[in-house]
Amino acid sequence: MNATGDTWPWRLLLAVILLGMAAAIWGAVQKIDYEWRWYRVPQYFFYKAEDLQKAPFDGQVSAIDGQGRVTAVTVTSAAGEKAVLEVDSASVKVELEEEVFSGDAVGFSSSWKMGPLIMGMWTTIWISFVSGILGLIIGLLTGLARISKNFTINGLAAVYIEFIRGTPLLVQIFIAYFFVGTVFNLSRNVAGVGALALFAGAYIAEIVRAGIQSISRGQMEAARSLGMTMPQAMLDIILPQALKRILPPLSGQFISLIKDSSLVSVIAITDLTKSGREIITSTFATFEVWLVIAAMYLIITSVLSQLVFYMERRFAVSD
Fold first, then answer.
1. Where are the bilayer-spanning segments (predicted)?
2. What are the pLDDT digits (tens) for 110-153?
3. Quick one: CA dihedral 116, 121, 124, 125, positive or negative?
4. Are 48-113 and 116-318 in the same CATH fold?
5. Whole-model pTM?
6. What is the pLDDT of residue 14?
7. At a CB cut-off of 8 Å and minimum separation 6, what does 157 contact?
């Protein structure tokens, strides 16, 4: 019997459990006295913005050239100056040879723009990315410092790790923005990214330290016996092997960093979480917005997880 045949009862059991959970959630939702407003959510992904086009000077409408949904309205001044305004055909408010004055409405031009949910998601992604890269650099250097035989370097690294891991991230963000940011005149984005990078760096440092120490000491001794310096042996022999071992916990740390980035909303950075709160304030669609935001975070972290799985498979092939 093949592997699929051996596991079909467990697949069936998994499907039953998931269907049972879905039914339980559906039943609970039905008991809630709440009016669902899903129709309000799509406009916060993308929306059609209308910009009022005004006559730039006093003059006369000398031409109205309609081209499908867009109409070009030409305004000519008494001195012969011309201005062509493109507006939606259905919104034209002037007629040919009509006199207009500076600031008069000619029509509306519409265009699709990204809503606050997409803008907030983009902010979350770039803050997490930049913080993750900086945190990786900080963690790598601190992890190497933790295995250093120099007492001062080792001690400073240990103090940094213990302080960061022993205090809440929210408190660290407040300190970074209201204290350090005020002293050095840092923007909220710099303070937020810095706090996240230092937070991630402390945890990555311990992951790096554990990964390096999991490699047999004999490999370092063999590399040194071949004439390699300590940095050369670390870069060419130890770290490549350690990277394969620490990749899963590193991915977990980066996924946690994406979720932890929601805390920067407390210092008025308009990330995905803050965008959601602002939308709820204007729509009162509390459950719908939070469910959508949760799904968006899940999509981001799932893409990262799949990327890490791909890298793990590539490393496994290269062994």
1. 12-29, 119-145, 157-180, 186-205, 289-310
2. 888 899 999 999 999 999 999 999 999 999 999 999 998 899 99
3. negative
4. no
5. 0.84
6. 92
7. 142, 145, 146, 148, 205
So where are the chain's domains?
Answer: 48-113, 116-318
- Please, which pLDDT band fits residue 317 given cuts at 50, 70 and 90? low
Q: Which residue has the higher pLDDT, 264 or 223?
A: 264
Burial class (CB in 10 A: 0-12, 13-18, 19+), 28: exposed
With 0-12 / 13-18 / 19 or more C-beta atoms within 10 angstroms meaning exposed / middle / buried, residue 269 is buried
In single-letter form, the type of residue at position 306 comes to: Q
| Class of CATH domain 48-113 | mainly beta
- The CATH class of the 116-318 domain is mainly alpha
**Kind plus residue range of the DSSP H or E element containing 114:** strand 105-114
What's the rounded Cα separation, in Å, for the pair 214 and 216? 6
- 1 pLDDT band (50/70/90 cuts)? very low
Q: Confirm if 300 and 121 have CB atoms less than 8 A apart.
A: yes
